[in-house]
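Try this one yourself first.
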């Protein structure tokens, strides 16, 4: 008798079947399109794809260059739906805009010095840096500072007036609560949350910028040799214990590093996180334990 397959081998086999299923599905649809005279003689510019999986999950590949409304209009016409009543039903379902449009930047009433305050975890503060960057872009002359946890994230940030303190500026608490509570009906990225909060508190509006933290490094930091030789992934496999539904099952983290390690033996995984939180230890020769070693400037 042959040996039984290991858990890793069974998992790799399943992943391969899933990939082949997607590839085969679209190959068959491509053959159908090639037989269609209205398609075979034209060049494709864009696409709108909606997939319905056997487990009920739905995934949409939205168009890039072509406005989504053009696709929707064509689908409505194809199905013979009267667009007016159809849109009325949609608007009735969405009772009001999720975020009312506040006044434009030019209508902001006061420009008194402000300190934006938030005492949440480091991940929240990383997203808060986006809102501060975008606020400064919209209001270059508005005096501003911050008061947060993980203050080392603001080192070298040129958007802040470090002389502002609670004695000479108004402290305004901001946070992501609105967008967090609307996450089952609003698909905007979490980076929008602090911008929305600032807009609500100050009754202003400004555009969302790039969806990435705004961290400013010194030339010395940029040019310093890496602490760990690449290639490596940084992962946080633990949890704080407050929002456990956000925690990816630990045993799956273990499966991931085993799977990637089998395909890419050179890859290392650096496990990070605050030492006071719950961090089950990942096992493997490719694991580097940095738990508690990256949470402040002195770690």
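Now uncover the answer:
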């Amino acid at each position: 008798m042959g040996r039984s397959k290991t858990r890793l081998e069974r998992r790799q086999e399943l992943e391969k079947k899933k990939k082949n299923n997607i590839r085969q599905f679209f190959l068959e649809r491509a053959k159908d399109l090639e037989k269609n005279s209205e398609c075979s003689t034209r060049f494709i510019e864009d696409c709108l794809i909606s997939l319905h999986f056997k487990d009920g999950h739905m995934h949409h590949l939205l168009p890039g260059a072509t406005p989504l409304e053009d696709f929707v209009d064509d689908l409505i016409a194809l199905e013979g739906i009267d667009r007016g009543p159809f849109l009325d039903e949609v608007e009735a379902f969405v009772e009001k805009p999720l975020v009312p449009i506040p006044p434009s930047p030019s209508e902001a009433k006061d420009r008194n010095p402000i300190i934006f305050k938030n005492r949440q975890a480091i991940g929240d503060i990383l997203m808060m840096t986006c809102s501060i960057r975008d606020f400064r872009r919209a209001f270059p002359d508005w005096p501003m500072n911050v008061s947060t946890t993980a203050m080392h994230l603001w080192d070298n940030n040129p958007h802040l007036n470090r002389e502002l303190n609670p004695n000479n500026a108004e402290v305004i608490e901001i946070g992501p609560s609105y967008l967090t509570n609307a996450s089952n009906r609003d698909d905007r990225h979490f980076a929008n949350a602090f911008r929305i909060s600032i807009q609500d508190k100050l009754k202003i509006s400004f555009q969302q910028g790039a969806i990435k933290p705004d961290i400013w490094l010194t030339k010395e930091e940029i040019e310093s040799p890496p602490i760990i030789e690449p290639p490596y992934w940084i992962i946080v496999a633990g949890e704080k214990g407050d929002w456990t539904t956000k925690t990816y099952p630990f045993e799956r983290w273990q499966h991931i590093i085993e799977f990637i390690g089998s395909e890419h033996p050179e890859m290392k995984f650096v496990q990070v996180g605050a030492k006071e939180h719950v961090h089950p230890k990942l096992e493997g020769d490719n694991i580097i334990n940095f738990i508690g070693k990256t949470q402040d400037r002195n770690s």
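Discussion: The chain is about 35% helix and 10% strand. The chain has four domains: 1-37, 45-95, 106-202, 225-289.
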